[in-house]
Here is the input.
Amino acid sequence: MKIIKIETEVMDIEFFHGGIRKQLFVRVTTDEGLTGIGEAWTGAPYQPVEAAVINVFKPLLLGKNSSQIEKLWQIMFRHAYRYGTEGVIMCAISGVDLALWDLLGKRHGVPVAGLMGGKQKDRIRVYASFPALRNAPLLTENLQRIQDEGFTAVKLHDLDVELIALARRVLGDDFTIMLDPSGAWSMLEAEKMAHRLEEFELLWIEEPIFPMQDHDSLYRLRSKTNATYAAGENEFNLSGYRRLMTSGAVDYIQPELSKMGGLTPAVDLADLAASFGYTLCPHCYTMGPAFYAAMQLGSTRNNMDWHELKWLPSGLQTEVVSPVTVIDGYVTLPDRPGLGFDTLSK
Here is the structure.
């Protein structure tokens, strides 16, 4: 069970508008010959996160018992505390932590959900997360395709009111629509837009204001409008999530497991959110170990719903793991050991 090797792997994946983004994976191998695979968030250049994995955490963990996940998480967090408790450090911890959970499930021959008390549900609800397409025919085509693929919900990044109206016309009244401005608006702009968008009955507006951690402004916005709000992908630790929940600024909490330190703190967050009466809707901007980790946790919790599933004009991302199948808006939890994905291309 001793860790003998920690490696990183970087893959090119398709991203918005045909662009390429680097996806960073962490492989942890033990003296048993088992390997767990995790994922660290790399929305910015990946090199700082990779350096933290290899230069900060690898020397700490070699020779350690890989089954002591909580202990190893605390060792990493405490050692790197003075480097920061957000950003690069937490992304790096996430990659290692997810790999350790994948490894533990494989060692025991069970899905990770079985290590957390077992499933309460066999499937999770997902939504197709679109890039900003900025083109009416392309948007229409992809909205029709996701309906054919079994989705019942979509998140748009297009902020043009006409395109949002188009989406509602194409999808009809019963289809769920979310909107993600990604911090594009000021407080006044967000208030104006929230009123304009009321007629489209959006499930939520996600992180409308920059900076995304400005909980006070988001609370003022919520108090002045009738919209429902979501946030959390840009929180990196439990302290941030606690501040977000106590602020009363949002209705849905969106943890990004490849940013917040992995599955270990996500388990604590699920309990914390339940105590506040919040629903967790995992954010996930790529298809990989982090999506599967959120699905494992989500299957064990009644207060988790609406998992994000990346959609591109070419369809679901398939470069890294085998694509999931969406049926009536849900994805079934795999029975494979560990996090549950069955392929990782090299």
Remarks:
- The longest helix spans residues 88-108.
